[in-house]
Amino acid sequence: MSEPIVVDDQHPSLFSQNKIVTLVSLKLKVVTSICGCVGKCCVIWRKISNADRLPRFIRGGTETTRVYHFWPGKNVFFCRGRLICGPDPRGFLLTAFSITLSSWIFCAYIANDSTLEHSSFITVFAVLLTVSVLINLVTVSTIDPGIIPRNASLASLNDAQLRRIKSRKLVINGIEVRLKFCRICRIYRPPRSSHCTICDNCVEKFDHHCPWIGQCIGLRNYRFYLMFTTSALIFFIYIFAFSCRKINRRILETRLWFFRTISSCPEAFALASFCFVAVWFVCGIVCFHVYLVMKNQTAYENLRRRHVDSPNPFNKGILRNIKEVCFVRLPSSRVDFRAEATSQMCHGGADQLQL
Ligand SMILES: [Zn+2]
Ligand SMILES: [Zn+2]
């Protein structure tokens, strides 16, 4: 039989041990409930998106059958095809949840401090930052990243015939670029495009598939991705600075050892720890993409070491590269997901959807 642990103020080390164990178990419970919530949200997400994906005429409705009902990629659609997302919502939900939770803890426990000057101004600024981060997150994850439509005219070719199709060569700014044939989309991919295996689409100027956003990053949403990462970096630095200020002030007030002080303000310590990791992570991403923008490279090209042995044909100099990414008007989507579906699409799509 083990001796029962008696909490005694005369033995502060035992007391603080008990408190730490309680805090850890509490955090584990919070993490478990967060994971449960995200799981439930995923189920709801899939139910909503699948319901939206089913052609209306099959469900007995009279509404027009649209392209997105039969889209062969793995995307999910909302608002009747106006919003297009990646197939896995977990990353997006987790990112949105952690930003909202951080903002709520900050406003409720850190900014709401009587010793803090201009606390209302600090709270309002934190809320504005949160709103801007969330707007950028929703924008980047719900717009068409630059999906290239599939070639329906080659639908009758079999695998052996498709394998025999060779790649083509194109000269851009005096440098030869190879155009690969995508056997899934049955198209010659335009330069800088690639097939995302997660979304199952060819994407123009494919950068990467971001698991934290749940969407491909390509030609049409890269600018919003930069805005999202930059605003998220400012948000986490802001929260980290004020959380550290609160911990520092508590240490000065109580004059206790650091680890005993944090048990008196666990929310500030948890927020500072989370933001510290987030700042380093997001800062690394922002720095990497600033470098890529200046070089006019995509992350995919950089990781594949595309322009190591040959010069980059798309590099126009730092200023023109920045202008191209940040200020040139974005092209409109190549696919009208809300357009009326043709009978050929309906037939092929129904086969794919196994209806
Ligand atoms: Zn493809
Ligand atoms: Zn993707």
Automatic annotation (TrEMBL):
Residues 178-304 form the Palmitoyltransferase DHHC domain. One of its GO terms (molecular function) is protein-cysteine S-palmitoyltransferase activity. It is found in: Membrane. The chain crosses the membrane at residues 92-112, 118-140, 224-248, 268-294. The keyword Cytoplasm does not apply. The DHHC domain is required for palmitoyltransferase activity. This is S-acyltransferase. It comes from Papaver atlanticum.
